[in-house]
Amino acid sequence: MFPAAFDYRAPATIEEALAALAEAGDEAKVMAGGQSLIPLLKLRFASPSLVLDIGRLPGLRGVETGGGMITIGALTRHADLERNRDLAAICPILADTAPQVSDPLVRNQGTVGGSIAHADPSGDWGSVMIALNAQLVARSSRGERVIAATEFFQGPFTTALAADEILTEIRIPAVARAAGTYLKLERKIGDFATVAVAVQVEMSNGNIGRAGIGLTSVGAKNLHATAAEQALKGAAPTQEAIGEAARMAAAAAEPKDDIRGTAAYKRDIVRVFVQRGLKTAIKRAQEVAG
Amino acid sequence: MKVSLKVNGTEYSDDVEPRVLLVDFIRTNLKLTGTHIGCDTTSCGACTVLLDGEPVKSCTLLAVQVAGREIATVEGLAAGGALDPVQVGFHEEHGLQCGFCTPGMMLVSKALLDRNPDPTEEEIRWAISGNICRCTGYINIVKAVQHAAKARSAATAAPTGAGQAVPAGGQ
Amino acid sequence: MAVETKHHHGGIGESRPRVEDARFIRGQGNYLDDLVLPGMLHMAILRSPHAHARIVSIDTSEASAVPGVVAVVTGELMAQHKLAWMPTMSGDTQAVLATDKVRFQGQEVAAVVASSKYIAEDAVAKIVVEYDVLGAVTSPQQAMSAGAPLIRDDKEGQKDNHVYHWESGDQAATDAAFARAAKVVKLSTFYPRSHPTPLETCGIVADVNGVTGQCNLHMTTQAPHAMRTVFALVAGLPEEKIRVISPDLGGGFGNKVPVYPGYVVATAASLLIGKPVKWIEDRSENIISTGFARDYHMNGELALDENGKILGLRASLLSDQGAFFADAQPSKFKAGLFHIVTGSYDIPAAHVVADGYYTNKAPGGVAFRCSFRVTEASYLIERLVTNAAIELGADQSEFRMRNFIRKDQFPYLSATGWVYDSGDYEGAMDLAKKMLGYDDLRREQAEKRARGEYMGIGVASFTEVVGAGHGADFDILGLRMFDSAELRVHPTGKAILKLGVKSQGQGHETTFAQIVAEELGIPADDIIVKEGDTDNTPYGLGTYASRSTPVAGAATAMVSRKLRDKARKLAAHLLEASEDDLEWERGKFFVKGSPDRFKTIQDIAFAAYTNLPEGMEAGLEGVTYYDPPNMTFPFGTYLVVVDVDKGTGQVKTRRMIAVDDCGVRINPMIVEGQICGGLTEGWGIAFTEQIAFDAEGNCIGSNFMDYLLPTAWETPKFELGATVTPSPHHPLGAKGVGESATVGSPAAYVNAVIDALAPIGITNIDMPVTSDKVWAALRSKGVTE
Question: Which residue among C222, C445, C506, C690 is the active-site one?
Fold first, then answer.
């Protein structure tokens, strides 16, 4: 219940943090809010020699819109998004997701960037960023680069970040007539998703221009339902098209039998949720002023 | 390493290993035992404190992580001897039985009312959904928060100063 | 809903606000982990990762070398002091620290005592144990099969995994009933392993003084006196030097009744080291190793005549007892009070057969507000009755009414030998239906069914049995289950009441004072109530199985009446009248016909120390050890409305009506609080809570990430109603209520889901009724979204 001993540093600037990380490499764990790392430390599933606390670095928290983008600082708390009254109009999938992450206390301290970098296959934000076609900004003392969310998640707790990189920003393209939603089946508040589905659609001349579908808890990482997305590209938003895409997304899922249910059950929930999610996303997108 | 923070308005400083959890710092170093430990997986909320006014789980924070910040625990609720409306509400509405979850419940309720002075029942249940109670079934906790909300808005409308008296006796 | 009386004395029937709140709302509670004694050390336990394995070797050298470690204790060391094994509350033996084998995942293997709990955990991680893994037994069915590994090879003469066989009722009469039945309804169902998980875990601060031999055990225990006697017998310590102090408890629910190895090891460590030793388990330890609840495989059958009247009931049970038989229950009843299983129904013949088996899991079974397995019995009968009504095409409520024991049949002798004290089952059912708008909801259900929507109304009409109990029938380890109250009134008219029971949140400091206030007229605010310190309270068997009000409450009333009898004599002396000329009005004696000639109880109390008649002993005090003549039988009807999402299998509890009858309510506010808590635990049991195991005996769900307690968001809103049918034999007419809701509600919730799915032919889903199970049931019948 108590962590093994470790060293701790809380650098005052991002440059200091990056330098410390470059030096320590694999021996260090970066901590933003600590809501994923500290539970692992307490169970002694992680025993780093150095915890690098970036939770108080300035300039990395907040949501900004402009320049065709929604920019979310990596240290933005889940609660910040939950309380952001403008978000439901600007990007409803973000407004739907934030309240469903963990529980209210964890949301006050945990960060969006920390959750994404942690890359738990049951993490919510990963699927959402995949559906939104987001760009993730990684910084190191070597410089800065942008990684597509669809390339970012590589396996359980494994991302495209190099050992010396810190995720600093999430960039979501602001697209007209676009909307989405996040449907999560959890056994109770605070549990990880049994199954969750992120759906984003962009309408174009009455048809679906692009669809983004991300799947939570049904694979070794947040999954990208590319075949389903392809089938929806340019399609008229009919029940048939929606139903077919939902079946394809379910087929793309890789769920396992476990305490939360059988693989067959989870696969069917993907289908039901993608179906429901597409209906909601399309309706919302159609209602968004051009 | 040395850590300094403010707890219930008082500045504290102590030497701790980085691995010491904030809840243990509060209970062992500061000897404030009103904040409780109910689980080992960040699941129950018995350890809830206010960090710069926001309710968080002190079992999932390191003491060193909150250096320089301001913590409020249950011991700080009664200001100058007068009970907080939340404390009065929990007593009046039988919002506690064993009392173990109560400090956390009261703090998260106070934070809710500070942000949303007139919450609906749904908003109350949502706000306390990170705090487990095994005894009450939550119904009277909801009533306690509603009681406090009413008392706070009455006080704002016509402030009289003193909180209600609850006997300081008991064992 | 609170019943107000005209008295504002803090007497019976008043929703007196709680006295104990004052310290809890200020964060000034005194829970076990809050206690710090000078020189106190901290203990952590090493637990087995395997469900069944031989211990080949234990190397503690690295652990002992960790700076700050004072001692490392193994089974071998405990064996040298004859403490490696201890007796259980069921007359079996249990390992304190494993010596030969480990028999469940999480079993205690060794312990470290160190200067801080962090260091103790560091050192535990450095103990190296070599195991030889054996096949694990994870169910009673497997335990009884040929070739199953023998778990208790430590017990001489134990050839298999069978623990006990127990029967109740009349097999011949029951067979005859089934032979002439027009219809037989069968149900095979499982009550899963769950856990009380009070929010505060179990722990001890053992403080043994090597010089004086004084052994102060601060312990999370619901039964401090029994614990003291057990420690005296187990550890060979002189009982007069053992003081058990149970402080404020953060919940109990039966989890804090058994003797746990951690208590014994910490006490031994304190004895050997000469310093206080604190052990407090973490949540994972609590769930994986302490007293679980239920794990009961049940086969039930109802025999019905052509009019839908129940002729007979058969129940055969397989109990998963874990690795040691450690149920905390009355010794004469191996299956607890399961034979209450005929429930609220007039069933002329019944036969119960129960067999318990060892498995490679933690020991226990009787806990979690179960009234000694009444939860299991009530679940079985209410599920059987629901299924019978479905098979007959009858209304759930009407079928029950047809078979209820009628009001004029009380006291009622059941087919398994219980004498039910009083009841009015139709009254509770009628009120519940009225509160729900039952007929309207059945109409709504019919409309929804026609549209392919799944809505259910679940009914459960439980009768349970509490108040253990009459000494000749009820004992734990031979200690008869009386309970006690000691009352002393001071010269200034204030009083102190000491009890043999121990609250874990039930508000005894508030409610027991109300009993004295009612009987003696001393204002409740002038009465202090003490519990939990064995040096300062009379002997009792503790608080669990809803026994405090029926037994200690009765003792409190009786001792108050004893004092009132003496007070009458003193009043006669003070008023210079004869006792027969005096009348009692609460709080004073007055001369008949001259109401201005009176003495208050305060006057009388003062006189007890200052102005006594010749030959009368000073003081106004007494103690009563109450041996109840019978149990009490609280009852009720619960109605639950659910809506099922056919796409996901999720079940939403729309409404929950709970009508309870626990006789006279001492404090209606507290009674309602107990009921709401129990309805919530029942909801968790029905829908989310289970300790599961895989084939290797690995425990899944031994922490709060997988053992799921309902939050305020999932918990439904409850609508409470009450009827009052006093117990004829209880001095106050009160029955006790702490467990009624956990007993009665799981079946109500599950019956609602079955009621929703019955039209498609689903007749059973075992608890917890999780969405994947509902989904599977729907899909098996071709229902999908």
Answer: C222
8 Å CB contact of B136 and C249: no
Token readout for C557 is 């009333």
Amino acid occupying residue C373: R
Q: Tell me whether residues C648 and A1 touch, CB distance under 8 A.
A: no
| B102 touches C: beta carbon within 8 Å | yes
Choosing among 3.40.30.10, 3.30.43.10, 3.90.180.10, 3.20.20.150, the CATH entry for A7-49 is 3.30.43.10
> Annotated catalytic residue: which of C369, C383, C547, C564?
C369
**B96 vs C248: CB contact, 8 Å cut-off?**
no
Of the residues B76, B96, B124, the one at which a domain ends: B76
- C69 with C63: CB under 8 angstroms? yes
Question: Domain spanning A63-173 has what CATH number?
Answer: 3.30.465.10
Is B19 part of any domain? yes
Query: How close, in Å, is residue B1 to chain A by CA atoms?
Result: 9
C-alpha to C-alpha distance for B123 and B10, rounded to whole angstroms: 32
Arithmetic mean of pLDDT over chain A: 97
Chains with at least 3 CB pairs less than 8 angstroms from chain C: A, B
C222 among known catalytic residues: yes
User: In this structure, which amino acid lies at residue C115?
Assistant: S
Position C9 scores a pLDDT of 76
User: Is C370 marked active-site?
Assistant: yes
C709–B132 CB contact, under 8 Å: yes
Cα→Cα distances C174→C187, C300, C352, Å: 17, 13, 10
Q: In this predicted model, what pLDDT tens digit does every residue of C417-444 receive, in sequence order? A: 999 999 999 999 999 999 999 999 999 9
Torsion of CA C528, C367, C188, C632, to 10 degrees: -30
| pLDDT tens figures, B55-67 | 999 999 999 999 9
What subunits touch chain B, counting only 3 or more CB pairs under 8 A?
A, C
Size of interface B-C (CB pairs under 8 A): 192
**Which of A106, A217, A268 has the highest number of chain C CBs within 10 A, making it the mutation to test binding with C?**
A268
ipTM reported for the complex surpasses 0.90: yes
If you measure CA to CA, which chain C residue comes closest to B31? C34
Instruction: Note whether residue B164 is domain-resident.
Output: no
pLDDT digit string, tens, across residues C3-16: 334 445 789 999 99
Nearest CB to B65; choose among A5, A34, A190: A34
Domain with CATH 3.30.43.10 in chain A: 7-49
What integer is the mean pLDDT of A12-17?
97
Q: At which of B76, B104, B134 does a domain end?
A: B76
Burial of B80 per CB tally in 10 Å (0-12, 13-18, 19+): exposed
Catalytic residue check, C294: no
pLDDT digits (tens, 9 = 90+) for C38-76: 999 999 999 999 999 999 999 999 999 999 999 999 999
Strand C242-245 versus strand C215-219 pairing type: parallel
Per the structure, how many domains does chain B have?
2
Report chain B's C-alpha Rg in angstroms.
Answer: 16
Structural domain including B90 reads 79-157
- CATH label of the domain that carries residue B84: 1.10.150.120
Catalytic residue (choose from C370, C426, C518, C699): C370
Task: Assess whether B24 and B59 both reside in one domain.
Answer: yes
Name chain C contacts of B20, Cβ cutoff 8 Å.
118
Q: A159 exposed, middle or buried (CB, 10 Å; 0-12, 13-18, 19+)? A: buried
Answer yes or no: are the C-beta atoms of A216 and A184 closer than 8 Å. Answer: yes
C571/C578 Cα distance (integer angstroms) = 9
pTM of the model: 0.97
CATH 3.30.465.10 in chain A, residues?
63-173
Its sign, for the CA torsion C450, C452, C453, C455, is positive
pLDDT of C711-720, one tens digit each?
Answer: 999 999 999 9
- Residues in chain C where the model's pLDDT stays below 50: 1-7
pLDDT value of position B59: 98
